[in-house]
Amino acid sequence: MEQDDGYQISKILLIIGGIIALVLGATSIAQIGFRGFATTTFGLYSSLLLLAVGIIALVSVNWIKSQTTAIALALLGFIAGGVGGILVAIGGIVSVLSKHTLKEDKSKNTALA
After folding, report:
1. Other residues' Cβ atoms within 10 Å of the Cβ of residue 100
2. Which of 40, 18, 20 is closest to 29 using CA atoms?
3. Residue 103, Cβ density class (10 Å: 0-12 exposed, 13-18 middle, ≥19 buried)
4. What DSSP string describes 50-72?
5. pLDDT computed for residue 30 by the predictor
6. Residue 59: how many CA atoms within 13 Å on its side-chain side?
7. What is the CA 84 to chain-centroid distance, rounded?
8. How far is it between the farthest Cα atoms of the chain?
9. DSSP class per residue in 8-45
10. pTM of the full predicted structure?
11. For 2-59, how does the pLDDT look when each residue is reduced to its tens digit (9 = 90+)?
């Protein structure tokens, strides 16, 4: 297994986690709308955070090779929680581990003479 394989796994986890986070956040906001906003302020904030994490995860899939992006996604995923947030966090962790533990494919980086 090489770095690119790890990054592909990380991208898949981010896409799936981002979609789940968006769906669960939107569903939660719809349920809060039916009950009323006065009694569920914390639920509204956590739902909005879950929506934001889902959007950020889907937008930043192409930048997952950057270590700062991966760490930020891991932290945001853990803060947001839920199934989608945890998948986003795992995707960020897999990206960091891929960068530091897996070997880079040298055959793709050789320049033609």
Report:
1. 9
2. 40
3. exposed
4. HHHHHHHHHHGGGGTTSHHHHHH
5. 82
6. 8
7. 8
8. 69
9. HHHHHHHHHHHHHHHHHHHHHHHHHHHH-SSS-HHHHH
10. 0.84
11. 888 899 999 999 999 999 999 999 988 887 766 665 556 667 788 889 999 999 999 9
Structure tokens of 58?
């889907």
Closest among 27, 90, 16 to 54, alpha carbons compared = 16
Q: Which residue type, as a one-letter code, is found at position 74?
A: A
Kindly report the backbone phi and psi dihedral angles of residue 109, in degrees, each rounded to the nearest multiple of 5, phi listed first. -100, 0
3 state DSSP class of 107: coil
CA–CA separation, 56 vs 76, rounded Å? 9
Q: Which residue has the tokens 């939660």?
A: 28
DSSP code of residue 102: S
What residue type is assigned to position 47 of the chain? S
- Rounded Cα gap, residues 41 and 28, in angstroms: 12
Burial (CB < 10 A; 0-12, 13-18, 19+), residue 40, is: middle
